[in-house]
Specification:
Elements (H helix, E strand, L loop, with lengths): L1 E9 L2 E8 L2 H47 L6 H29 E2 L4 E2 H6 L2 H17 L1 H15 L8 E5 L8 E5 L4 H4 L6 H11 L8 H44 L6 E7 L5 E6 L6 H9 L16
Antiparallel strand pairs: 1-2, 1-7, 3-4, 5-6, 7-8
Length: 311
């Protein structure tokens, strides 16, 4: 039997009141809470992707500075450490992105995160359409998916890197460069899925495509950002309704017992009378989702930006 347990202070003593729940009410409350849990999980996963991406860009700049500081002469051991750090971050980023995309849209695009939360086929169609646009127009997202599958099974993403110094003339500042080229001759034979082979052929037909890991991740992560931004927009109504369901139910249960303030948790009473705590109705935990939506407020195409730290 499902019950609501109301915790309150009565004459300075903490008491609990148990109220039986109808199955329909329990199902409604459980479904509403699942909507919020699923939304928070997606926010957390996307935040992990962005943290790894930020770490990768930071490590790129750090590696550039370290090589410049050494005059460009570094031993095999130090080069290994640079590669190792970049590989770890890029590998984590690709794996996290796969985890996200497997929830975002799956089973041959017949299901999606948005469809699960809204049960709205038109909104699901928007997700599928956006993914198709990214595949058609963002070469680095398209190739990023191919490279992700290769990295998961066959090859670490960073095998080599290039560094150098250039200056147009003596009056200009010197430019220290650091890049991570992808060896297409190694990647291409490792592509196994037919869909990946088609994607690779599509990318290689474009002369302006540059197999540089930094560029690839910029475009790939930007596409993920646009996916996540649309997900938020399309499920906003469902999330709002879920909050209302939980708050209204909590309020009604508290008022029904003549109380003004109390805590409410849901339990399951088994046949042996053992009580299993299922969840609390307090929504303070969902503040994390609100925080992450502010923290990762928009999708940014970092390939279009240069960062200058000088006045």
């Amino acid at each position: 039997m499902k019950m609501a347990v109301i915790g309150c202070i009565n004459n300075g003593i903490f008491e609990e009141i148990r109220v039986p729940l109808d199955e329909d009410i329990f199902d409604e409350v459980t479904c509403a809470r699942k909507t919020l849990v699923d939304m928070l999980d997606m926010e957390i996963t996307y935040d992990q992707i962005m943290e790894e991406f930020t770490s990768f860009k930071g490590k790129m700049k750090e590696s550039n500075i370290r090589i410049l500081r050494s005059g460009g002469h570094r031993g095999y051991e130090e080069m290994h450490e640079l590669r190792s750090n970049l590989n770890r971050i890029a590998f984590n980023l690709f794996n996290l992105s796969k985890f996200y995309l497997d929830k975002h849209c799956y089973e041959n695009q017949t299901k999606s995160f948005v469809l699960n939360l809204t049960e709205d086929k038109q909104r699901h169609a928007e997700v599928v359409r956006q993914r198709k646009v990214a595949y058609e127009n963002n070469l680095y997202y398209t190739f990023g998916g191919v490279l992700r599958n290769v990295v998961q099974h066959h090859l670490l993403p960073v095998e080599n890197f290039r560094s150098g110094i250039s200056r147009a003339n003596l009056k200009d500042k010197a430019v220290s460069s650091f890049s991570i080229p992808i060896d297409m001759n190694k990647v291409a034979p490792l592509v196994q899925l037919k869909s990946d082979k088609r994607a690779l052929d599509k990318v290689l037909k474009h002369e302006d495509f540059k197999p540089d890991l930094h560029k690839i991740l910029d475009g790939y992560v930007y596409a993920l950002g646009t996916f996540h931004t649309l997900n938020r927009t399309l499920v906003t109504e469902a999330v709002g309704k879920a909050k209302e369901v939980l708050k209204d139910f909590e309020s009604k249960v508290i008022v029904s017992e003549g109380l003004v303030e109390a805590t409410v948790r849901i339990i399951d009473v088994l046949e042996n009378h053992r009580e299993v705590s299922l969840f609390h109705l307090d929504l303070s935990w969902y503040k994390v989702a609100d925080y992450l939506q502010c923290k990762n407020g928009r999708a940014v195409d970092y390939g279009l930006w240069e960062f200058n730290g000088y006045l």
